[in-house]
Amino acid sequence: MNLKRLQAFHAVYSTGSVTEAGRRLHLSQPAVSRLIADLEHELGLALFVRQRQRLVVTSEGRAFFREAERALAAVNQIADIARDIRTLQGAHLRVVAPMIVAFGLMPEAIRAFAREHPKARVSLEVRHMDEIADWVTSGPFDAGITVMPFDDARVTCERLATLRCLLALPRDHRLARKPHVRLHDLAGERMILPPPGNRNRDRYAAALASVGVPYDGSIDTPSALSACQLVAAGLGLAIVDPFTARAASGIVVRPLRPAIELTFGLFFPANRPRSVMVRSFARAAQSVAKSASRTR
Tens of pLDDT along 128-149? Predict the structure, then answer.
């Protein structure tokens, strides 16, 4: 069944005029008449008869109109569904991240995504770095953000940005008066540490060891945001990513010299096509990361 023929029939039936139907459909009068004739030939029914220079619907035409209206309503519903899919109306994005990203970069990426798709639902799962690939490949998750390098054949990882870490200090700390803090200035300072086995703990320790400073502390936490709260309570200093530093309160932050850098990346299941929703989230995350790169 040709959709244009159904639309022409519906328009002529509704307006009672081929001319008005043509205006509604943006077609010429002969084009509308041809569509009606083709439909009648296809159906083997006379839908209209001409009486005194006007079209009059037949009883068969009235019966067919009810079915045509249902069919066109279904077509319109399909178009609405397609629009909702395209605009992510009612879509559900499932993302996963380690703690450093979940309380740092991820909220800003989700906010940028939600601005574009305010009616989409988002679920964020926080997992240990070693569990993330399992969660993405075996669970219902669509994408994630992590600290790189992140090597696992089951996921595809794409670089977002490389950013310089900041030092979180209590507001009244002696180093808060400096425009930046050199790593050797941290000699003798108590640090709030990532937990043992955490890659960032090893990364920060190596940077301090390069200038002969031990990376010592009596408190560790897997959350950079928690570390900032402990800093605000006067329990030590912490090296944190710039996204978490922006979200924290009660502290001051200073650049470190030489810089300690973290590279963030997006990751996706390697063998799963990326949906419109996932691509939109990736663009949002890339926009946030690019903005942070410009201001670092």
Answer: 777 777 766 666 778 888 888 8
- pTM of this prediction? 0.65
Query: For 18, what's the count of Cα atoms within 13 Å in the CB-facing half-sphere?
Result: 18
Q: Is the peptide bond before 149 cis (omega within 30 degrees of 0)?
A: yes
What is residue 10's three-state secondary structure?
A: helix
Rg for the chain (alpha carbons), in Å? Answer: 31
CA dist 148 and 158 (Å) reads 9
How many helices (H) and strands (E) the chain has is answered by 11, 13
Q: Which of 47, 31, 35 is nearest to 5 (CA)?
A: 35
Residue 160: its H or E element: strand 155-164
Dihedral, 196, 127, 148, 258 alpha carbons, nearest 10? -50
Structure confidence by residue, pLDDT tens digits, 196-249: 988 899 999 999 999 999 999 999 998 899 999 999 999 999 999 988 888 888
